[in-house]
Design brief:
The protein is α+β, with helices and mostly antiparallel strands and 112 residues long. The chain has a single domain, classed as Alpha-Beta Plaits (2-Layer Sandwich), CATH 3.30.70.100. It is 54% helix and 19% strand. It has a three-stranded antiparallel beta sheet with strand order 1-3-2. Strand 2 and strand 3 form a beta hairpin. The protein is globular.
Length: 112
């Protein structure tokens, strides 16, 4: 009887582990951009960058996060980051990254 219970418990935990084993492990690579914006141009930059983020939502499968630096040496800068990638992801995503760079330059590449 004890052996049967042990086999059932072990089977239960193995079944719980299967969905996790089928998922691809997240990568350890990230890409990060730092953008320095003049204090007087922050509002204009944020409006243009909002349009650029819409481009990413519609054209890019990667998730991007943006933070604004509020204290320290880099105050007024913005940090844009995507993470959890493998080297091969960058190769497969190179055309989208290039198109995103062009979109950013058109919208946000002004003298901010």
């Amino acid at each position: 009887m004890e052996r049967r219970v042990a086999v059932l418990v072990a089977s239960f935990f193995l079944l719980l582990a299967l969905p996790g084993a089928a998922q691809q492990e997240s990568g350890t690579l990230a890409q990060e951009f730092w953008i320095k914006v003049k204090p007087s141009m922050a509002r204009e930059f944020e409006a243009a960058y909002g349009v650029h983020n819409e481009w990413h939502r519609n054209n890019d499968s990667w998730e991007w996060q943006t933070w604004q630096v509020l204290v320290g040496e880099k105050v007024g800068s913005y940090v844009v980051r995507t993470g959890g990638h493998h080297w091969a992801d960058f190769d497969a995503h190179s055309k989208t990254l290039a198109a995103g760079g062009e979109n950013f330059s058109e919208l946000c590449g002004r003298d901010y």
